[in-house]
Predict the structure.
Amino acid sequence: MTTQPQTVWENADGVLSGSTASVRAAAMPRGDQVCGAVTLTIRVPGGFFQVVPQDQSGVATILLNPNEARGIAAWLDEAAQAADRVGPPLYES
């Protein structure tokens, strides 16, 4: 078993607003098992993000047209399926 997270599925692309969206399914080690997780990473141009003063967290906004939104939603679904094949979810509700 690996001790490092591994990407098992990935897709990324730029969008018309100048941002980039990246979706990945990952195999994440947790104790003696490997769990599935999905990551959504966005890169946004200046003016589309801010730091929240109360806790220093960050907020970013990615503007999408409807077709871009459907495409990213499809990526999230594919990544979720790939993460399901890895093992139990990293976080469970």
Observations:
- Strands lie at 6-14, 20-30, 33-43, 49-51, 58-60.
- The chain is about 25% helix and 40% strand.
- The radius of gyration is 15 Å.
